[in-house]
Amino acid sequence: MSMHLHFVLVRRVPPVPSPVLAEVGERLTERGFVVTGDIPEEVLTRVDDCSTGDHLVLLKSHTELALSIAGVLHHEGVRMLNPYESCILTQDKLTSFRRLGTCGVPVPRTWVTSDLDLIPPLLEDGPLVVKPVRGHRGAGVVVIREPQDLKSVCRPADSVPLVVQDHIPGPGEDLKVYVVGDDVFAARKPFAPDSFTKPGRPVPVTEEVRSAALRCGEALGLGLYGLDVIESEAGPVVVDVNYFPGYKGVPGAPEKIASYIERYALGRMDLMPGGRRLQALPA
Predict the structure, then answer these.
(1) Three-class DSSP category at 229
(2) What are 218-228's pLDDT values in tens digits?
(3) Predicted TM-score of the model (pTM)
(4) Distances from the Cα of 63 to the Cαs of 8, 36, 67, 78, 132, in angstroms?
(5) May I ask the CATH architecture of the domain 109-166?
(6) Residue 109: helix, strand or coil by DSSP?
């Protein structure tokens, strides 16, 4: 019987299929897998009857609904890539940055608050970045240089926290790093609200960046992931991590992703959720 792979997808901007993911699906189908997918917000899911048997679920969405459904599937014992616990850990910027820092990954100093009036004294040490605690795709990220800049931040409700981090000076472009298992790729592009929709310029991966990238995967229990890096004068600093990115502009990405998914689906490798990565198992 063919193994079933089910992709939990996110609405794309613009609303067209991902060419990378479409090719991944084609390659997996050619290898004998049954590949399906849906966007949780566009289907009606019966929560008390959503077990998928021996399927492998590929969690590509970061939305609250997708994560909630993934939690139900995880409770039912469904295998997931990346593992559910790793995705939850990665999505929470407070917990993930604390873990990254303790695992030796260079990250900015980080605070959290729901009261914007507590932030101005921190500006005495330099500019800051304010972002949602569970944000993604760069949504809600604001650079604060003066107290009046806080007016551009959406004031949260008392129960909604914001992450505050040191603004790391860099060359004016983000370094987007993409990881498939132990393969690390990098591209540079300017930060913009829609930068996630555009490929960057491929660049060589330095040993410092490669080491930081693989350490992120080990710390968070990820196999398919990306990170945003600022190339500061003191070296690379990781300012964001996300699971299962778009891999736009990564040479040979569909084949590498499909091969990684195949090995994981067949039990030839595994990940420790929220901890170290296991070595690939013998074929």
Answers:
(1) strand
(2) 999 999 999 99
(3) 0.89
(4) 10, 19, 6, 19, 13
(5) 2-Layer Sandwich (3.30)
(6) coil
